[in-house]
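DUF3107 domain-containing protein, Leifsonia virtsii. Tokens?
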Amino acid sequence: MEIRIGIVNAPRELSFESSQSAEELAAQVEAGLTSGTGVLKLTDDKGRLYVVPTAGIAYIEIGTEESRRIGFVG
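Tokens:
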């Protein structure tokens, strides 16, 4: 699952892949935003931990699982 996080006043977004489902990620994001700790913690499919301050989040986009295309698309 692809996750993209827009950061306020930053020209680029944070983008990574996760092995969790969309429902699991949405629940984790909601819990992080409402917990009051001030940070959102997410882990990618390689085990790296991303800690993002919730005050700086502009948006969070959780993509769908899509198989990669091989070859030319006409």
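The CA atoms of residues 36 and 54 lie 9 Å apart.
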